[in-house]
Each structure stands twice: as C-alpha cells, then as structure tokens.
Amino acid sequence: MENFSEEREELNKIKEQAEDCEAEPVASPGAIQPHGALLVLSQKNFDILQLSNNVAQMLGREVEDLLDQSISQLLGEEQTQLIRKKVVAERERNVDPYLRSLPHTPVNITVNGEDKVFDAIVHRSDQGFYLMELEPRDLYDDYPLEGPHQLTKSAILQMQQAHQMSNLYNIVVSEVARLIGFDRVMVYKFDTDYHGQVVAEYLREGTFDVSYMGINFPNTDIPANARQLYTKNWLRLIPNREYEAVDIVPFRKWQQDDPLDLTLSVLRSVSPYHIEYLEIMGVSATMSISLFEGDRLWGLIACHSQQKRYIPYTLRMACEFIGQSLSLMLAQRQDRKLEKKLKLLDVITRKVSANLVAGYGLSEAFMSQQKDILALMRAQGFAIVDHIKTYMGSVPPEPQLQALCSWLDTQIEDRRKGIYFTYQLSREYEAAREIEEISSGILAIPIEHPTPGYLIWFRQPAEKTIDWAGKPEKREVRDERGIRYSPRRSFATWKEKLKGRSEHWTSAEIQVAEEFRTRLYELQSSLYRHMEQENKLLEKKIKERTEELSVANEMLRQAIKRKEISEEELLQSLTSLKTANEDLERFAYVTSHDLREPLRTISNFSQLLTNKYSSQLDEKGIKYIEFILEGTQRMQTLIEDLLRYSRVQKKGNVAKEVSMDNVVRETVKFMDLMLAESDGRVEVSTPLPSVKADRSLLMQLLQNLLANAIKYRHPDRPPRISVGAEDDDGNFYRFWVKDNGIGIAEENQHSIFDMFVRLFASDEYEGTGIGLAICQRIVHKFGGVIYVESELDKGSVFYFTLPKSD
Ligand code: ADP
After folding, report:
1. pLDDT (mean) for 609-637
2. Is the C-beta atom of 767 inside 6 A of ligand 1?
3. With helix as H, strand as E and coil as C, how does 96-159 read?
4. Is 709 near ligand 1, meaning CB less than 6 Å away?
C-alpha cells in the first residue's frame, strides 16, 4: 500500500469498526451459553434472585419453582452448607474479592428422577451477588479423575526445562492440545498496540489446512473491551459456536442502569461479532487463556476446534494452570530483561557521574556514554531537549525536533506521569513523514527540571514485511442491532510491506526510560548541589581574595603615593644639592681666584700701615689695624677650607691602594709641632691595613681629625690620641681616632658633620666649621661612613670606614 492517505483512510475504517465492536456489551450480555445453568444468588441467604431460562432442561426444575427460593431447594441442605462454608472461608482468606481462587464443588442433583453430577462453579460478581454456574459432567465422555495439578505435572516439568522461549511456547501448545484434544492450539502474542502474532502453533494433522504460525492479527480482532475482560477472566470457552443463547430471567428493575455483570462467568454468552469471526475462520469450538507479563496482558493461548467440543472444568483449570505458569515465566524473563537493562543503566549513570565529578558538563558527560545509551534502548538517536540540548546518534534537525516537542505537549496530559511512545510516528503525527527515516519510532518522556523538555529516543524504520491474517476490509451489515461492521471475510494471508515503522518498544524499555528520567534528575540535582557548593566556596574565596586585594591595593596605592612623593622629594633635594654644590664650587672658585687677591691687598696694606705709620697712630688705631689683620687671616683660612672642601669632589677620582700605616705616620709627623706645643701624644696600633682610596685626601682626613683632637683637648690634661683599625665587614675596615678631649654633647653629635657647624665661639676655639664636613665628604667619596661616639669631659672617638684594598 504505497499511498499514504489511502492507507490512513483504511486505518480509520478499521478504527471505526473497532469502535463499533467496542460498544458491544461483552461483559453483560444478559444471556449465557446453553451448556450449563446460571443462578444469581443473594449475598445474604443464597436466595435465587435470577436464573438462566434453561433450568428446566438442565436441572429439571421450572423457573418459578426456584425463583426467590434458597439454593438449598435445589442442592439440599448438606451440599448448600458445604458450598457456603467454602465461600465464607475463601472470603475470610481475603485473597480475591471475586473468589476466583474458590475451588469448584461437584454436586449431585436429581434431574427428572436421574442422579446427575454437576460442577458447581461459584464466584462473586462486582455487584455483590454470588453467581453459581452448574455444568453437568456427563457433557464430557471421560471426565478426568485426576485433579488439575496431576494433569499438568508433565507440562510443568517440561516447561521448567525449556531454555528458549520458542521451545517453551511449543511445549505449552502441545501440552494444552494433549489435554483438551483441540485441533489448533496457538500462543498468540500482543505487541504494544495489541496487534497479535502467532508465535507457536500446534496443528493437528488432517484438520485446519492453513497454518497461522507467524501470522499477525490486527488489534481490532480483539477489541479493547474484550481485552479488558480477558485480564479479569483468565479462561473463556465456547464449546459450540452455533449455540443458542439462554436469557437470564426475570428482568429486574435495577438491571436497567446496571445490567448483570458476567465478566467472570464461565457460561457467559459471547458477542455475535466474535461468533461471526469464528465462523469465517471455520472454527466451531474455541477456548482461550490469558497470558500476563506482570500486570500487562501479554497474549493468549488460543485453541480452535473444527468440531464442537466441550471441555470440563477440571481440564480447563489444568489449562489455566499452564497459562499461569507460562505467565510467571514471562514475568521472570521480563524481570531478567529489565534487570539487565537496569544494570547497563547503572553503568551508564556511574560513568556519567564520574565524568561530572571530573568536571565535565552534563551534556558532555552524557555524550561520552552515547553508545551505551543508544544500545540500552535499541535506538539510533537520542535527544535531551532542554535548555542545553544534547543530541546523539541520528536525531531530526532542530526545527522538526522543536515542532515534534510542541506536538508532544498536546499528546501528553499529565507531564509528571506521562510517556509517549509509538513505532509509527507518521501515523499519529503527519509532519513526521519527512523525518520518517530518522524517527519512525519515538519514545518520549517529559522532563521538568531544570526547564520543561523531553527525553526522546528515536528508532529508524525496520524494513520488514508483515503477514496479516486477512486484508482489512469494511463490510456493512444491517441486522437486528442496526448498522454495524462485520469482520473481514477472509483470513488468507495478506502481505503488508512495513513503511515508516520501527521495532516496538518493549515494556522493559519503557520502564528503563522512566528510570532514566529519574537518574537524570538525580544526576542533575547532585550536579547542582555540587555546583552550588563549589559556587559558594568560590564566592567565599573570591570575597576573601577581593578583600585581600583591596587591602593590598590600598597599601600599594599609598606606597606608590609615598614613593612618588619621596622620589619627588629625593629628586628635588638631589637637584637642590647639585645646585648647592655647583654654587659652592663656583663660590670657592670665585673666592680662591677673585677674593684672595683683594684680601691679600687688604692684608699687605694693613701690614704696611702698621710698619710705617704705627708711630703716628694712637693705641686704638694700632688695635684696629690688628683687628683688620686678624679678620683677613680668618677669612683666608675660611677660603682655604672652602677650597679644600670643593676640591674633595675633583681630586682622587681614581681610588688606589693606600697604606694607612704610611698615611697616619706621615700625618702625625706633619703635626709634630702642634703635638709638641700641647704636650700631646699619638699612639698608633700598627700595622694599619691598606685601603682603596686617595692618599692625599686620606691625609687631609687624618689631619683634620688629629687637629680637632688636639684643638678640643681638655684643659686639665694633655691630649692622648690613639689611632687603630678593625674589620668592619667583608669589604670595609673601620678606623678610629680616639681622644681624651672635652667631648661632644649627645645632641650635637650629628650636626658637627654639617658645613659651618661649630659648637663654640671663635674666640674660645678657632675654626671654620668646615673640617668635619670635609672629612665626611672624603669618607663618602669612597663609600664609607663617619660618625662619632663621645662623652662630655671624657673624650671622643671618631669612626670612619674605608674599602679594603683587596
Ligand atoms: P672647627 O673648624 O670648628 O674645628 P670642625 O668641623 O672641625 O670645625 O668641627 C666642628 C665642631 O665639632 C667644632 O667646632 C667642635 O666644637 C667640635 N669638635 C670637632 N672635633 C672635636 C673633638 N675632637 N673634641 C670635641 N669637639 C670637637
């Protein structure tokens, strides 16, 4: 069928047909099949409220004789009590409200003078009545003496030994066929849409000429209301298709709104649609047993007989037992399948979560597991459609995917519970035709966190041809129930090439998909928890760092400011120092060349004045001339000193090795006269080391210091001076010149090295206040320092350091 819209129309017809069929009151037909009698009993006293209108033939009693009577009228007190006891006990066991587990009871009833054995099958209806169905044992030629358990022993043993499912199904069909002697016994399996396929078939030779093995039956063959009934009533029997239904009488008023519920009745009359269906198939008697996989109706054991054939209750129970055993095994297999998938999901989850811990994003972590995620669901594509969007394998393009999600929104009512799956998307959603090659089948689960979206697995079309039992067709029938559609006329195999249909989603896959969603939420929430913690930690760290940084910044800012200021200050003082130096040097130059000459003139002429005109001058005049001479003398000294000071910078720019022994000895010799005058003595701790400096500057240094030691001697004692040296640190020697003079007050010990600083008036001690400034300049020139330690009245020690010569 190539044309899609034609196919679609066909499908709609089948749907209509199915709906028509689904309207059938399958559970409450108000009639039974004639191979037994039905009594509706009151809950309280087991009074007969209604009964099937065949009690005369079946039980040899008139309806009127039994109606509103106690059942004991029919069964006698003893048998009634026996059944009542069983019912009470079963109700107390409280296993099943319908008492489906209640064992049947053989009862004796005298029918028209003849003792007959019946199977009394009792259950409780939804409406609260007890329904007793009586099937005469003489309907069956050799009623089995064994109970259902003995009858199925061999079947169960073989089933337990089966390793493969196909093997198991084959055992089931042949064992059921052996028990009930039907011509065809099939295991019929529903897919997710309840289309059925025959997966095992026993076919008695010389009976039906067509095998249904592998053939598919559309879901319309067993409509939803019938399937619903099959989930409650596990075994149905129609011994003779051509039966005449027996009404249940009398019609009671309450039935108007609530017709008698025959869901669990074993005699229940079946839908004419079903009878017609059997007729077309050439089936006279049929029995079917429900098979479950967990709660879900998995399929049927369907039995067909070409001849009418009654199966007694014991045998039916044996078959039901086989069906239940198969159901248990199916559930087990299902559990194993699910378990396997859940294990794989565990592995995936662990790996994803390990990736998350390793710092990958959720999407990346999932992508790393794409092979397993696709294998898990036997899918070719998978998408997590949320704000991030994770696509793996073959997934429809973005716009189509978005459109699909919007369409899914309209399909899923309760997003928290909802799940949507189909193996033929384009049938449900026309726009999917253009993405059929990628997404014939989809399984979609809504996700809510962090934003509403979907998990969608995509399956590509499965290329296969399906063998249907008959071509779907519409047949309008007008009968006593109005216009309806009858089943197709032929069950001859109709081949359909599957287009745009994928493999079905199994219930294990559906469960795993839901579990996947749960895992996703767990991973997300653990990720967010982790991220939140990390974030908090990070925030804290950032805050701390920011605070530290701002403190450091402030400090830096201040430091820079200070540095800027001090640099500026330094620069300023350097400049001013330079200027001052230059001024001084210029001044020294000026004084040495320009001032010395007029000064000499003043001094010479003052001298002449004294020599030539002292007789003409009075005493005062002579004194004034002496003052002039003294002044010029002092001025000359000052000029000499200034010159010396300024020359320090110019002289000895190349430092050489100088022996301090020599320098000190020569200086002391040079000062001989001064020492002799003051009765002074100099002691030198020889040998003094050699230094790297300029010899004449060092002599000037020593000369100044020794001169001061003599000049500032104590009035009470002659000067005793000692000169020595010691190692200062790795590169310098420290020299000292120690005297026993008047000492220097502590507050003056710094300033004495400044220019022109003198502690005494010039009439007390002669001097210019330049000597120590020259000393400092010399020491600094060679990288050393000079300082004094002194005590008033006791003496002073002048220390200075000079670089070692080596
Ligand atoms: P001056 O030409 O006045 O000696 P200096 O620069 O040589 O100038 O000395 C500065 C001042 O330091 C002196 O005026 C004196 O007061 C004090 N001074 C220097 N050497 C000594 C010393 N050995 N003992 C005491 N005072 C001293």
Report:
1. 82
2. yes
3. CCCCCCCCCEEEEEEECCEEEEEEEEEEECCCCCEEEEEEEHHHCCCCCCCCHHHHHHHHHHHH
4. yes
Average pLDDT over residues 688-716: 93
What does the pLDDT average to over 417-425? 87
pLDDT per residue over 617-628, tens digit each?
A: 888 888 888 888
Ligand 1 within 6 A of CB of 752: yes
CA geometry: angle 455, 457, 463, nearest 5 deg? 165
The finding on whether 760 has its CB within 6 A of some atom of ligand 1 is: yes
Contact predicate 652/693, CB 8 Å: yes
Mutate to test the pocket of ligand 1, among 637, 640, 648, 712 (most ligand atoms within 8 A of CB): 712
CB atoms within 10 A of CB 301: 24
**Dihedral of the CA atoms 564, 570, 574, 577 (nearest 10)?**
140
- The number of residues in the chain equals 806
**What counts of helices (H) and strands (E) characterise the chain?**
20, 29
Q: In sequence order, what are the residues at sequence separation of 6 or more whose Cβ sits closer than 8 angstroms to the Cβ of residue 641?
A: 768, 770, 771, 774
C-alpha–C-alpha distance, residues 643 and 591, integer Å = 8
**CB 741 less than 6 A from any atom of ligand 1:** yes
With residue 612 as reference, give the H or E element that holds it: helix 596-613
- Determine the Cα angle at 731 with ends 728 and 736, to 5°: 35
Say how many Å lie between the CA of residue 752 and the centre of ligand 1: 7
The encoded tokens of residue 717 equal 């004692």
Give whichever of 205-209, 244-248, 386-390, 751-755 has the largest mean pLDDT: 244-248
Our measurement of the distance from residue 765's CA atom to the centroid of its chain's CA atoms, rounded to an integer in Å, reads: 94
Question: Given pLDDT bands bounded at 50, 70 and 90, which one contains residue 113?
Answer: very high
Residue 200's Cβ-count burial label (10 Å; 0-12, 13-18, 19+) is buried
Residue 4, pLDDT > 60, answer no
Q: Residue 668 and residue 683: Cα distance in Å, rounded?
A: 10
The overall average pLDDT reported for the chain is 86
Mutate to test the pocket of ligand 1, among 644, 711, 770 (most ligand atoms within 8 A of CB): 711
Q: What is the pLDDT of residue 475?
A: 57
Q: Who's near 189: CB < 8 A, 6+ residues apart? A: 196, 197, 198, 199, 298, 299
Contact 692, 782 (CB under 8 A): yes
Distance CA 293, CA 300 (A): 11
Ligand 1 lined by 634 (C-beta under 6 Å): no
Measured torsion, CA atoms of residues 781, 785, 790, 794, in degrees rounded to the nearest 10: -60
Ligand 1 proximity of 776 Cβ (cutoff 6 Å):
no
Band (534; pLDDT cuts 50, 70, 90): confident
- Between β-strands 246-249 and 31-32, what pairing exists: parallel, antiparallel or unpaired? antiparallel
Mean pLDDT of 279-302: 93
Rounded mean pLDDT of 661-682? Answer: 92
What integer pLDDT is reported at residue 320 of this predicted model?
94
Residue 481 confidence class, pLDDT cut points 50, 70, 90: very low
Rg (CA), the chain: 63
d(CA 290, CA 309): 20
pLDDT grade for 776, boundaries at 50, 70 and 90: very high
Q: What is the pLDDT confidence band of residue 2, given thresholds at 50, 70 and 90? A: very low
Distance from Cα 758 to the centre of ligand 1, integer Å: 6
For residue 694, with 0-12 CB atoms within 10 Å meaning exposed, 13-18 middle and 19 or more buried, which class applies?
buried
